[in-house]
């Protein structure tokens, strides 16, 4: 039987985890987006070593579990640097590095989808490569790949729950703590699931709103 009477007083405590989750997701998204753009430019560039590095980087982070990457950064790296890393910075680094690999593929596909005539016209006018990418190609690519980027953002929001393995007090960890103190796990975990679901709905709505506004600005 469900019994939320013991869990209801702890709902504010669980809700406090939203701030931790959003902090991790927002900063990891920024890191992933910047890194993804740089990696994508390396992949489509003509400098072979950079292209090989970007492809190797992507294969490593797409080919290994995210939880492994997180635990390596939180537990293993301190062995080499001689100091501990707090859970939240470790999560931001791990999620940002992982997201960068996926975002790079999304952006690379978006850049390749832009009409080649745009680049040819820019070169004919003598526009420098960096300026062409910043002012002409990337803005068009971003409009095309916005839905995919929002999906990555939403996925990152849900995957952030694995920070519970390193003790970060996000939504999931707090729900687990409440379960341990009340000896009832189903109810707090169900509440955590509802919170994640609502957050996903909100992010989906924001993504569609931004997409519509960008289309109107064309």
UniProtKB/TrEMBL annotation:
Keywords: Amino-acid transport, Cell membrane, Membrane, Transmembrane, Transmembrane helix, Transport. It is found in: Cell membrane. Residues 18-207 form the ABC transmembrane type-1 domain. One of its GO terms (biological process) is amino acid transport. The chain crosses the membrane at residues 20-42, 54-77, 189-207. It is a multi-pass membrane protein. The keyword Cell membrane applies. CDD domains: TM_PBP2. SUPFAM superfamilies: MetI-like. One of its GO terms (molecular function) is transmembrane transporter activity. It comes from the Bacteria. GO terms for cellular component: ATP-binding cassette (ABC) transporter complex. Pfam families: BPD_transp_1. Belongs to the binding-protein-dependent transport system permease family. HisMQ subfamily. This is Amino acid ABC transporter permease. It comes from Lysinibacillus telephonicus.
């Amino acid at each position: 039987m469900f019994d939320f009477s013991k869990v209801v007083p702890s709902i504010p405590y669980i809700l406090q985890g939203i701030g931790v989750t959003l902090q991790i997701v927002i900063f990891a998204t920024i890191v992933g987006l910047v890194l993804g753009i740089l990696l994508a430019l390396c992949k489509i560039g003509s400098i072979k070593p950079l292209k090989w590095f970007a492809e190797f980087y992507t294969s490593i982070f797409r080919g290994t579990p995210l939880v492994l990457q997180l635990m390596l950064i939180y537990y293993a790296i301190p062995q080499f640097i001689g100091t501990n890393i707090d859970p939240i910075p470790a999560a931001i680094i791990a999620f940002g590095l992982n997201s960068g690999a996926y975002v790079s593929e999304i952006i690379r596909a978006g850049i390749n989808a832009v009409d080649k005539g745009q680049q040819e016209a820019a070169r004919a006018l003598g526009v420098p490569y960096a300026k062409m990418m910043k002012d002409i190609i990337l803005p068009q690519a971003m409009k095309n790949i916005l839905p995919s980027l929002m999906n990555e953002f939403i996925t990152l929001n849900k995957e952030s729950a694995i920070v519970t393995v390193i003790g970060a007090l996000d939504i999931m960890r707090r729900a687990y703590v409440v379960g341990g103190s009340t000896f009832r796990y189903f109810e707090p975990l169900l509440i955590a699931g509802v919170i994640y679901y609502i957050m996903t709905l909100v992010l989906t709505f924001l993504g569609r709103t931004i997409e519509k506004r960008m289309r109107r600005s064309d």
